[in-house]
Design a protein that fits this description.
This protein has about 180 residues and is an all-alpha fold. Helix content is about 45%, strand content about 0%. Pfam families: DUF772 (PF05598).
Length: about 180
């Protein structure tokens, strides 16, 4: 059969990752204003030059964490898999097709190294930039809570609460604060 294409899975090719990301893609919009300088400045005290094995670039790390947040990726392992396979994520994280994606097992050590303060500073700056460029409204608030509270309630003491009633109670609490 003439003209039949035969797939060669190991064929090497050169591609331009930039050309795969549409102009209106969310990551391209966010990328347009996130400069790595402020991330490097905030994290520089966490690294000792020339000591130990090479570390994961803090810019790559925070860009990966931002991808996880923006796309609802809830585990480090899954994030690394998604970045490995998704061209837009690779492009945003500054990883070429030849670059290895950081191993998920490094993420908890990095979080411990940076601590809560650096995390907050980086993400406050990113939210501020998103507001400046119109991607987030001023009144937007982001809240997360991973607090584990042991429940001590008997099933026979539970009270049925209609969704509308719960919504009204929540609105009342918001208006009080």
């Amino acid at each position: 059969m003439q003209g039949l294409h035969v797939f060669e899975p190991r064929t090497r090719t050169v591609i331009d990752l930039e050309s795969f990301i549409p102009e209106d893609h969310l990551l391209r919009q966010v990328n347009s204003f996130i400069e790595p300088a402020f991330i490097r400045k905030l994290t520089t005290s966490c690294y000792a030059e020339g000591r130990g094995r090479p570390s994961i670039d803090p810019v790559v790390y925070f860009r990966m964490v931002l991808v996880a947040y923006l796309y609802g990726i809830d585990s480090d392992r899954r994030l690394c898999e998604e970045v490995h396979f998704n061209l837009a994520y690779r492009w945003f994280c500054r990883l070429s097709l030849e670059d290895d994606v950081p191993d998920h097992s490094s993420f908890s050590r990095i979080r411990d190294r940076y601590g809560e303060e650096i995390y907050e500073q980086v993400f406050h700056e990113i939210v501020k930039l998103c507001q400046q460029y119109g991607l987030v409204r001023e009144s937007c608030s982001v809240m997360t809570d991973a607090t584990l509270i042991a429940a001590d309630a008997a099933l026979d003491s539970l009270v049925h609460n209609e969704p509308q009633q719960a919504l009204q109670e929540a609105e009342a609490l918001i208006s009080e604060s």
